[in-house]
Amino acid sequence: MDICIPLSNALIIGDWEKANGILDLDSRNLLDYSISENKQTPLHIAAMSKSIKTVQNLVHRMTEQQLGFQDKDGDTALHDVAKAGNVDMANAMVEKCPRLLTIRRKRDGLPIHIAARYGKRNMVFYLYDKHKTMEGNGLTSHDVHKVFYKCIGADLFDCALLILNDNKLSGFPRREWAHDVLYTLAPKTYAFNDTKSWKITWTPLAKRKSVATILLKEIWDNILKSSSRDEIKDILNGPTITNGNKEKTYPFRMLFVAAEMGNTRFLIELIRGYPDVAFKVNNDNQTIFNIAVSHRHEGIYNLLYEMGSMYDIMSVEPDRHGNKMLHLAGMKAASPLKDVSGAAFQMQRELLWFEEVKSKVPLHSREKENKAGHTPRQLFIENHQNMVSDGEKWMKDTASQCMVVAALITTVVFAAAFTFPGGYDENGLPIFLKDGPFIGFIIFDAVSLIFLQLLSLCSYPSLLLVTLTKISEHHYQTN
């Protein structure tokens, strides 16, 4: 303890002179011993510091065998450095002992897996490059797929694209990994924000696609080229999920996750390569377009316009509860309307959604009841009663506040209009009355007062009307 604690403290703060002195004075070779409860060696401790010089000096004193020592979790010092993403420290270790790249820990495997898991882009690039220069590269097919998968999970799409391009000829990714890879990409809407206009038909929509879009297209193309129709269906379906003693399937779950999250670009790329994707249904007999209507994702919903007569068919197809697309539009949004503030504007958005879907639904289907006996209009009224009330309260409160502000402004301007700069003489006339600029001031002051009165005459009645009127559904549509 008298030696280990001072040595650990010196290594953590990067005091190489003190650490080196302790190592020199002790008769034992402390580099062969663990100096912590977790069986960490001095190099493990130094790897947690920010001192590159300390690590480089320690590595210089150590043998290859000492560099490969593992702690209680099976981590070498390179695993620890991979977590932190310090490439200079990693380079000092790997240059002296390349086999560190292939030493596995108890979980997550190799250092490159750790770097990918923690999202250390530069470290992944460095370690992957070092693996490629090794004889046999030290990576099994499983290792490569695991790095690839973890890179996607950590949003390291450029790293994943490099790995994909290096392994194209080997049918990458393999079918047992394909579902997990696509499923990981499905909810990452933010990664595919390369364009605001979406079309299924092939047109150059953006000058520069996001890396995630390029990666997805390459993955999907490889899957389509190397898989049969049944295999593609299995990939889209995914494995059966076991919950206790029960097994449950979620048909084409990745498609509906993407639809719920509004990942339009993800769905477009899949539909372009495999149009049947647009017609897949979940356990509730809903398509991705039903989900898009429920969650108010206009990008996905608008894709229906490109499908011609299929819109008429899909819009009237009932789900498990007898709800058609217009019924779903009549229900409250499944996802909060985060981009709309204020209950009144949210209600207006909901009403516009309903009317938009209604305008495209065949006339004979607009008043059809679901299994519970509700028409779309009835569902809309029932589900939005609270929103109508909240919107009414919001508008009246806002109108009242505007009236108070308008009254204050009117009072201040009115007082200012009859207060002249410079004061008055003994006859009660403004001192600057005979000055030219003062005449201009009087004119502009009078004009501003007149305009303010006209504005008040126009605004006060409308604001007062809002505070006194009972707000109903049609007000949100007409205003």
UniProtKB/TrEMBL annotation:
TM annotation in the entry: 402-424, 436-455
SMART domains: ANK
GO CC terms in record: membrane
Keyword terms of this UniProt record: Membrane, Transmembrane, Transmembrane helix
Superkingdom: Eukaryota
Ranges for domain PGG: 392-451
Protein name: PGG domain-containing protein
Organism: Centaurea solstitialis
Lineage, broadest ranks: Eukaryota, Viridiplantae, Streptophyta, Embryophyta, Tracheophyta
